Amino acid sequence: MACASCTSSDGSPRGCKNNGTCGTDSCNKLTVFDWLANMQLPSGQAPYDLVEVRFKNSRKEYFRNTEGLPLKIGDIVATEAKSGHDIGQVTLTGELVRFQLKKKKIKEDSETFSKIYRIANQNDIDKWQAARDREAEVQKRAREMAIFLRLEMKISDVEFQGDGSKATFYYTAESRVDFRQLIKDMAQAFSVRIEMRQIGLRQEASRLGGVGSCGRELCCSTWLTDFRSVSTAAARYQQLSLNPQKLAGQCGKLKCCLNFELDAYRKALKNFPRTETKLHTEKGIAVCQKVDIFKGHMWYAYKGEWMNWHLLSNEQANEIIRMNKANEPVASLEDFVLDLPVKNEEKVFENVVGQDSLNRFDRPKRRKNNAKKRKQNSRNRNRNRQPKASQKNE
Fold it and tell me: What pTM, to 2 d.p., does this model score?
């Protein structure tokens, strides 16, 4: 199910050569790499009959290939729906589907799986494409109806069934919404069966997609399938400032990527003392000011001397804490301070972009009006000389 900008007349994707990151529709959303594609089944073993099919955006479902169709990844198929049929793209076949079912804790012997009717013909693709072309206009009119009825909801996406007989409206709302009148108005205006489906803010960002602050596509719309809870403790472990504008993603919630490196930070912090633990010395009490987790450095300052920081390693800080607990005297932090070698490296700048020299702005600029002033002065001198010459002639 390639987007409209890279689909040929027969329905097979031509390829936009953007590696699935065109950003115009649903290319390469939640794609699973088939690492068993070059493997052949043992003789006498039938292929796995369950197939993974993806529909608009990130919606995926599993269907049984009861007809034994020779399906491969990328085929457009007509699948069974509650009424009529739907059109989707095959995204995974074979034994990897079994692994996906185990990962999502879906029973293989369940009777709830629908079946695949056939490989979609040109008539099916034309109807499906015509229904997809209506979605933008239908979504706009549905939002206008919701605003007219003063419903506190946001219709974020509309998905038509492959045969165009049903439309699913995905919306977000903070509280319960009575949309019975809205359904009546939309059914009368669009002449299709209406289904309203409420989703969360993270699911909305997953369906719509976008580009994050890192410059890459959103993880939830490309590969992330489970939305684990993210707390501000993850930001505290990573020494990040608790700025909601920087820590929040496009969904308005805390970024999922805060959990990606959390285990590495927690493992590294096991060898560090607690930052609120104070170091008692004969010179005074020292308080932790800063921690560099991966270098293993800690900076302490005496009370009343907050501008003078002393660098210690995490082992030295633990040793001082052990001595404090054993009531052993500690003279001062200066006895444990690390002496880091100072590197005096001369920075050499190179003209890597083919522009002028980097010190071109250091040269004194010549005033452009110097030449004009010289010409004006010479003209004034000539004018002053002309009357004297005329007097001599008289």
Answer: 0.70
